[in-house]
Amino acid sequence: MSTTPDYPARAVVDLDAIRDNVRALQATASTAQVMAVVKADAYGHGLAPAARAALAGGATWLGAAQSAEALAVRAAVGRGPRVLTWLYAPGAPFAELVREDIDVAVAAAWALDEVADGARAGGRAARVHLKVDTGLGRNGITPEDLPAVLDRAAALRAEGALAIVGLMSHFAIADEPDDPSVKMQLHAFEDTLRVVEAAGMPIEVRHIANSAATLTNRAAHYDLVRPGIAVYGLSPVPHLGAPGDYGLRPAMTLEARLATVKRVPAGHGVSYGHFYTTAQDTVLGVIPLGYGDGIPRHASGGSLGPGGPVLVGGGVDDVAAPGTGLGTTRVLRIAGRVCMDQVMIDLGPYASEQAGDVVTLFGASDGLARAGAPNAEDWAQAAGTISYEIVTRLGARVPRVYVGTAGKETA
User: Fold this and answer.
1) Residue 173: is its pLDDT beyond 70?
2) Which of 48, 159, 30, 140 is nearest to 408 (CA)?
3) The pLDDT value given to residue 410
4) Which of 71, 131, 153, 292 is placed for a possible disulfide with 340 were both Cys, Cβ 3.0 to 4.6 Å?
C-alpha cells in the first residue's frame, strides 16, 4: 500500500470491477438499456472515472440527481451517452442543461415552464422525462396533478420548447420483491403510461427499476433500468444474496496504516467514555480514520455495539482461519467510541503489528459470513444502516486511488 504523504489511508477503487458489474447488470436486464447512476460522486467512488468505467461496461445512459452533477458528467464523458438529471429547485440552470444535451425529469407543474424557458434560451427543445409518484410519496407528479401537467406539456410541446421522451418512477420497497406495494406501483405506472400516451405523447423510454428491481424483478425492466449501488458491486438486497450471487464484486477497498501500536495493562479504558475496557494485558492499535472521514460513529464498539470490523494481518485476498497467534490474519472489531479522526482496535496480547502496518476496513469481499473478510455491508450491519451510506459518506480527505484499466485512458 502507498498513501499520500499528508494522509495515511486510502480508498482503492477498482474501475474494472465497475465495468464488470455493469456488464453483469446488462446481462440481467437483457431487454433494457442500463443507466448507471453516478450521483453523489458515484456513491463516493469518484464521478468521472466511475462514469467512464460504467460506459466501458456497456451503460448507454448516466444518471445524476442534481444539475451540477449532470453537467460534471457531461464534461467528463463528452457528448456520446445520454445523461439524465432529476432533482432541482426553482432557478436551476436549465438553459445550460439543454445546451449540454442533458435530459431533465419534471416532477412538478412549475418545472415545465422553467425547463421551457431554459429551452428557449438554449436554442433547442428540451428532452423531458415525466417523473410520476406511483406510491413512494417522495418526488413526483401525483395522479391528481397529472392532467394539468399533461395539458401544459402538450402546449409547450406544440410550441417546440420540449419533447416528452420518458416516463419514470421509483419504488418504495423494491428490496422486498414480494411486497404487495411493488405490484401496486407497477400497476400505477402502467395506468399512468396509458394516460400519457392517450394525451398524444408517445414515450421513448419507460423506467422505474433501481438496483433491487433490476436484480429481482424482470417485469420492472421496461426500456431502461437505473442501477446505483449495484454498479459499485454492493448488494441492494443483502438479505437475499451477497454481491457474488448476482455476479457483482465491490469496487472500493478502504485501507489505512496503523498510526500507533502500544501495550497497555488489563482494565485499561479505551477512547471517549471508556465504553471498552481491556480484559487482559494487550496491544492497542490506532487507525487514523474517524467520523471526520465518514466512519460512522454508530459503528463504535464495546458496550456501545459490535463495532465495525477490521481485517488485520493481511488484505482481503489473504484471509486465513481466525486465530490469536503471532502474525495471524484476523478480523477485529472497533474498540470503544469512534472519534473524529481515529478509531482503536484491540490487537491482542500476542500481536506483532507495528506502526505503519496496513489494515483493511472493508473491501472486495462477499462479507464476513461468506469470505471471512469484511465488506461495506458488514460495516452497515455494525452501524445500523445500509451499505449505500458506508461508501457514499466516505470523506473527501481520504484519497481515492484508481486501479484497473476501464476508463483510465482519460481518467
Assistant:
1) yes
2) 48
3) 46
4) 292
Instruction: Give pTM, 2 decimals.
Output: 0.94
Cα distance between residue 315 and residue 320, in whole Å: 10
Q: What is the mean pLDDT of residues 341-351?
A: 97
CB 107 within 8 A of CB 86: yes
Cell of 238: 443483502
Q: Half-sphere exposure of 365 toward its Cβ, with a 13 Å CA cutoff?
A: 27
- Catalytic one among 39, 276, 388, 402? 39
Half-sphere exposure of 22 (CA within 13 A, CB side): 26
How far is Cα 380 from Cα 208, in angstroms, rounded to an integer? 26
Would you call 183 a catalytic residue per the annotation?
Answer: no
Please name which of 93, 217, 106 lies closest in space to residue 153, comparing C-alpha atoms.
106
What percent of the chain has a predicted confidence (pLDDT) above 70?
Answer: 94
Reading the block at residue 165, the C-alpha cell is 421522451
- Could you identify the residue written with the cell 439543454? 98
Question: Whole-angstrom Cα distance, residue 76 to residue 78?
Answer: 6
Look at residue 64 and tell me whether its pLDDT is greater than 60.
yes
pLDDT digits (tens, 9 = 90+) for 102-135: 999 999 999 999 999 999 999 999 999 999 999 9
- In this predicted structure, the answer to whether residue 325 has a pLDDT above a threshold of 50 is no
Give CA–CA dist 86/353, Å, rounded: 49
Grid coordinates representing 51 are: 462514469
Active site residue 272: yes
Mind listing the pLDDT tens digit for each residue in 131-143?
Answer: 999 999 999 999 9
Joined grid coordinates for residue 376: 461495506
Determine the Cα–Cα distance for residues 389 and 379; give it in Å rounded to an integer.
10
Tell me which residue of 350, 329, 333 sits closest to 283, measured CA to CA: 350
CA distance 224 to 227: 10
What is the C-alpha radius of gyration for the chain, rounded to an integer number of angstroms? 24
Among the listed residues 223, 174, 292, 250, the one whose alpha carbon sits nearest the alpha carbon of residue 29: 223
CA distance 112 to 116: 6
